[in-house]
Amino acid sequence: MDLATVLGHNFMSGTLPGQKLALLLSHGLIDHGPLICDIVGRILCSSPSTVGDTSKLENTNTRSCLFFALQRAANIYERSLGSTSQRFLKNHHSVQYFDLSVWLKSKFLERDSTESNFGPCSQISVDLCTHLADQIFEFLQKHSGTDEILTVIFDDITILVDLGIPLGDIHRLLFSVIPLGDDKQLNVQIILGCHVGELFDGALTSASDPSFAHWIDLLHSRADWVIESRPLATGYITALDGEVSCLPFDFFHSTCSSISDNPFTRALAKCFGRS
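RESULT FIELD:
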């Protein structure tokens, strides 16, 4: 079974009505970057029938994306998205990228050599959080009053934690994107990638930052879709083969049974280079 079968028609234009948050968790050495690229490619397609067939792409696009490339450079994602993304990007400017590596480089180039060695670094997390909030605000303002589905994508939110941004600030940043209550003016969705590594594997949980583990649990409970990828225990190279489970919001809140015990809601995929 391949990745397309696991995701089905999810994340297509016009799908996921009223569902605001998709959480992508990668465990161990697995890389969820290919999942991010596949989802963005689906978002850019006009209908389910166009996935994988650029000859059928229509001239209309009902989605616009703001892509925060935090873990990798933006041009890597652009290349990975392939011809589908490039065609829409050229003709419709439907993807707006923020490249953290470029931003960090510019911040350090602005550094005054007469300042303390630690001066600019102590301020960088504050400046970054402010800049991300400004980027989101400008993106939402630009598309205010339209009927577009707006998608904000973070490839790996743990990078912000590593850069010293407090979890409370990251949480406020994420949930400021989603309109409160029944506000229909903006239809905004978040695709949130997060590499948790070995965080939830046995004894390592207690040895790690408990606040971060609690925050991930909170996101897990609030997400409309939770997509988890893990290495396969088959001897394959873990960077190329993975196990993907997709858990919809309604199922998560309607049963206490484990997804691994329910064959009707769990799909396994050898992906990331193998089908």
